[in-house]
Request: fold
Amino acid sequence: KALEIDKDYVSAITELGYCYYALENYDDALKLFNRVMVISKTELRVYYAGLCYFGKKDKDNATKMLNDLTDMNSSYADKLKQKIDKL
Reply:
């Protein structure tokens, strides 16, 4: 409903992305995370996008998210790297 009122409501887009991630619907989650990262790129959004790529076994794009986290000096970088190393 919130997105019907404001299609660029960052918090609603992000939370919906988390829901899709939790349901293992990685494609829809990524659409939302990528959409919201154009507006506001945060460590947590990049991390969850990386987790979605990991879930899809897409090592190349997961590594791109890892590189973004590393550039941000994020503590999430190590967590994502551990997962990527398993691919």
Summary: The two ends are 37 Å apart (CA to CA). The chain is about 75% helix and 0% strand.
